[in-house]
Specification:
By secondary structure, the chain is an alpha/beta fold. Helices cover 39% and strands 14% of the residues. The chain has one domain: TIM Barrel. The structure holds 5-hydroxymethyl-3,4-dihydroxypiperidine (IFM). Residues 31, 34, 180, 309, 375, 422, 429, 438 line the site of 5-hydroxymethyl-3,4-dihydroxypiperidine. One of its GO terms (molecular function) is beta-glucosidase activity.
């Protein structure tokens, strides 16, 4: 492993980033299936991603997480990297099938021991652990029993959350129940791009509701079990949905997109209700959210922190290329407009201004909930030199502009308390396999050598500067 963090990196002078306060939390994020590997070790059973990766054509290049970054065996070195960057927080996720194989029953002591060691290693290096309980690796046995569209999965999740908390709750202060439930529900069950690869809108919406129910149930269980102050929350992937023009059709397309991607999750958690316009849109598709009595009270159990993941903005149009506002089936046209903007290797538009708009909007529409940016970052086509070093100016530019966007949102009143770069390491980027690299540290998958990129050095220096350490 190359831990030489002494190479020079340039840090600009006066900058909005410098207005971020000393209490601001600085971190990096990862998730279990994307980095751990060791999928059949110490009693771990398959998750829906182990299964999905074996479906021909499901994942780019037939890639899978069997080895990934081999983090399961290299964890102390990876923690050292985080500590050497001077970061105060590490956000990681626990693999449900590792600690409770099959998704029900007693804890798997050997699997839990890995996270026990990880937490101790972090604390020993003055890095605070931030646990995400669910970052998409549902035990396959629960999928076989119906998966997230099955209401029982929410209760299984609450049991699992309690079991992890019993093991780590004495040392871990901050707990995120779910990462990006929109992705689990819609990419997994409605659009089929992610595990388990189902394609049914009704299943997607049922999954969304049961994920949120699981979040609420787990939040209550953890709050009851806590013996010392804890911070509870969930992480949503949020974006802006702007209309291309002021026309009624474009504004309605933007409303619908915002509703399905953002408000369907924000409103029940932070207001205790589903947005009626989205309920009506879904009804027009013959889909009903399977809410039972009392569910919304559970889902709206107060949280302490909202995790915000932001990557890109989007512009929406309600007319097609021919200017029609209805498609051949008579349904309203809903179209994302491709703008002439710089893009990342994911083909995602780079729009830092939208990040500011999003955070200010969250502050305005859902006041009173502190926010932490639990993910932000970019994949680019990295070109390592002969030593494996990547001079990733593009990533440094992306991170700089997005941190400035956060600082501007704070200046406008948004209560943002921390920022975690996605991701510490290049890793398994789901359906894109290992082709897309988001890490600030390069991973050579042949040798598992880690090499901090220029963005890692820039991040280290920026954090030091903002903290006034030099
Ligand atoms: O890699 C993912 C992560 O698992 C969830 N949020 C978005 C990242 C980049 O696509």
């Amino acid at each position: 492993m190359d831990t030489d963090l002494t190479r020079p990196s340039s840090v600009a002078g006066a900058d909005p980033i410098d207005t971020l306060p000393p209490s601001f939390r600085w971190g990096v994020a990862t998730s279990s299936y994307q980095i751990e590997g060791a999928v059949a070790e110490d009693g771990r059973t398959p998750s829906i991603w182990d299964t999905f990766c074996r479906v021909p054509g499901a994942v780019h290049n037939g890639d899978h997480g069997d080895v990934a970054c081999d983090h399961y065996h290299r964890m102390p070195q990876d923690v050292a990297l985080i500590a050497d960057l001077g970061l105060d927080t590490y956000r990681f996720s626990v693999a449900w099938p590792r600690v409770q194989p099959g998704g029900r029953g007693p804890a798997n002591v050997a699997g839990l021991a890995f996270y026990d060691r990880l937490v101790d290693e972090l604390l020993g290096r003055d890095v605070e652990p931030w646990v995400t309980l669910y970052h998409w690796d549902l035990p396959q046995e629960l999928e076989d029993a119906g998966g997230w569209p099955n209401r029982d999965t929410a209760y299984r999740f609450a049991d699992y959350a309690e079991l992890v908390f019993a093991a780590l709750g004495d040392r871990v202060r901050t707990w995120t129940t779910l990462n990006e439930p929109w992705c689990s529900a819609m990419l997994g069950y409605a659009y089929g791009d992610h595990a388990p690869g189902r394609r049914n809108l009704g299943d997607g919406i049922a999954a969304a509701h049961h994920l949120l129910l699981g979040h609420g149930l787990a939040t209550r269980r953890l709050r009851e079990a806590a013996r010392s102050p804890i911070e509870l929350g969930l992480t949503l992937n949020l974006s802006t949905a702007d209309p291309e023009t002021g026309s009624a059709a474009d504004r309605d397309a933007a409303r619908a997109a915002d509703g399905l991607a953002n408000r369907l999750y924000l409103d029940p958690v932070l207001r205790g209700e589903y947005p009626q316009d989205v309920v009506a849109d879904l009804a027009a598709e013959g889909v009903r959210i399977p809410v039972e009595e009392g569910d919304l009270d559970v889902i709206a159990t107060p949280i302490d922190v909202l995790g915000v993941n932001y990557y890109f903005g989007q512009l929406h149009s309600g007319v097609d290329e021919q200017g029609r506002d209805r498609d051949d089936d008579g349904k309203p046209v809903r179209r994302v407009v491709r703008r002439d903007l710089p893009r990342t290797a994911m083909d995602w538009e780079i729009v830092p201004e939208s990040f500011t708009d999003l955070l200010v909007r969250l502050h305005r529409d859902y006041p009173g909930t502190p926010m932490v940016i639990t993910e932000n970052g970019a994949a680019f086509d990295d070109k390592p030199d002969a030593d494996g070093f990547v001079n990733d100016d593009d990533r440094v530019g992306y991170l700089t502009e997005h941190l400035r966007a956060v600082a501007r949102a704070r200046a406008a009143g948004a209560d943002v308390r921390g920022y975690f770069a996605w991701s510490l390491l290049d890793n398994f980027e789901w359906a894109y396999g290992y082709d897309k690299r988001f890490g600030i540290v390069r991973v050579d998958y042949d040798t598992q050598r880690r090499t901090p990129k220029r963005s890692a050095l820039w991040y280290r220096d920026t954090v030091r500067r903002v903290r006034g350490q030099r």
